[in-house]
Amino acid sequence: MAVYTEISDEALRAFLADYDLGELLAFRGIAEGVENSNYALKTSEGGDFVLTLYEKRVDPAELPWFLGLMRHLASQGLSCPLPVAGRDGIALRELAGRPAAICTFLPGVWPRRVRQEHCAPLGAALAMLHAAGEGFRAERPNGLGPRAWAPLLERCREGGDAVQPGLVAELEGHLSGILREWPRGLPRGHIHADLFPDNVFFLEQERGTPRVSGLIDFYFACTDHLAYDIAICLNAWCFEPDLAFNITKARALLGAYQALRPLSGAELEALPVLCRGAAIRFLLTRLYDWTHTPPGALVTRKDPLEYLRRLRFHAAAKDVGAYGL
Amino acid sequence: MAVYTEISDEALRAFLADYDLGELLAFRGIAEGVENSNYALKTSEGGDFVLTLYEKRVDPAELPWFLGLMRHLASQGLSCPLPVAGRDGIALRELAGRPAAICTFLPGVWPRRVRQEHCAPLGAALAMLHAAGEGFRAERPNGLGPRAWAPLLERCREGGDAVQPGLVAELEGHLSGILREWPRGLPRGHIHADLFPDNVFFLEQERGTPRVSGLIDFYFACTDHLAYDIAICLNAWCFEPDLAFNITKARALLGAYQALRPLSGAELEALPVLCRGAAIRFLLTRLYDWTHTPPGALVTRKDPLEYLRRLRFHAAAKDVGAYGL
């Protein structure tokens, strides 16, 4: 459920007066989104927008990079939120004491239940995202990449075994293997790094194939192995609710991706360890939140153990054949 | 923060297939609203709508009355959500195991901070609502009216004094006076009964007077003294954040209301006790929620003591002069 900053009418009106968007016609908090506060905005000139207030998890110094990347991706024809500048040409502004930006509204609905038909369009969209990112020169290191994992696990040491006895020791075992085998020299670029179903909008017709209408929420984007983004998607899209791996979905995702950007031999070989890394990354941040969130907080904690199941699956994968290739 | 029922894509698509609204273009949870789950919906035919799933606080048997009242009010020209019927002519349907209805979208923004300029348009809108309700024959008793207050207080007896020592005894004193003086024979009609600022949308221009663009959330509406609705609005709109009563706002509200429907002598005389009743009604439901909500629940509890301050103000009011008349 969304963090939710209250904005006074006066502050909102003063904020909008710096844009060429006309009069305010509607303004409603959006329930989706955990990291930031999002509001659906409708104005007399331009229609629908999304206003985002960046809450404390986002480092304000990094916002120009995120907004710059989104502007670059949109200029390359990718359907993603396009930051809207005020009259002075500046998109990153301040509202209610927080950094804030208005972006274009994207049509579409994120899939509450992933079907096989979503996975090929997703794979193609991911490859298009990776291609569209070329030419954006500034890099952003992955703050939740391999170097962050051991310190994260260390900070979960106290609470981790209460979640499941023996968990910390099992994770230490996995982690040392992952870090030892972590690949070097794979093709790099800008990755989304959080492309879960709620960040991918689809338009579907009654009996047609769903098509991707937009990608959102680039606030974990960074510069890293492109194939690591695929590994994140395999974790996020290809496990069923009972946590069984759906190899048909994986094959569809990988096939559509490779139709646009074929993976190198080194990338294919690295896929299992990249998947283990992606699983432990989400496991660790969830475990951290789980063990550090006071029970009464207005936040839905996500179960970290779902990712332990995924991690074990990847650890058992002999090679890329486990993913349908 | 909104209750939030997850709806699968298949269920949503099947639900929408029963309407003539075209393809689904957008679907997002709305953060506002406590009682029900609300979703902003955009479709290719007809544009914006609000989908409401009625959660457990609403009695399904009463929904036809609420939707019927909204349909009647809209037919009289009042700007309120108009239930949209499916192809079979039925507006009240089922989705995700809950009663559900799609209503038209209303433009406007509810005032996060009430200014004096909001109060005259509010008073006029309230009078128009009361006039528009005439001709809707079915009645709904006020389930949170005077008869409900003593039982509610009884159920708060255990936890009440923990909120503030002596609270239960003070409320018993107020309540017996209110019930003794409660008026009979005042003009009756359909009232909103929950017309707080978040249920009133305004459109404002840069330097113009705000105008009411719509009233929403009729799920407490009932048939009662019309002046009791005014008393609720005086409580909800005319106290400052420090809980000082703003007589200028009250005068604006009452003046604009009376320009459309002058209050009778009996109504004017009853206004202070109606205000005390409205204050104790919201105090008691908040106190009940406060003392019965587990600390870890995902619900924002509202401070009941804000209404004790209001109640004391009304109890000290000698006559309608205290409200600026």
Automatic annotation (TrEMBL), chains A, B:
Provide the reaction this enzyme catalyses: L-homoserine + ATP = O-phospho-L-homoserine + ADP + H(+)
Superkingdom per UniProt: Bacteria
Q: What is its EC number?
A: 2.7.1.39
Keywords of this entry? Amino-acid biosynthesis, ATP-binding, Kinase, Nucleotide-binding, Threonine biosynthesis, Transferase
Give the first-level EC class, as a single word.
transferase
Q: Which Pfam families match?
A: APH
Could you say which protein family the record assigns here? Belongs to the pseudomonas-type ThrB family.
The protein's matches in CDD domains, at most eight in alphabetical order, are given as: HomoserineK_II
Q: What name does the UniProt record give this protein?
A: Homoserine kinase
Q: Which InterPro entries match?
A: Aminoglycoside_PTrfase, Homoserine_kinase_II, Kinase-like_dom_sf, Pseudomonas-type_ThrB
Biological or metabolic pathway of the protein = Amino-acid biosynthesis; L-threonine biosynthesis; L-threonine from L-aspartate: step 4/5
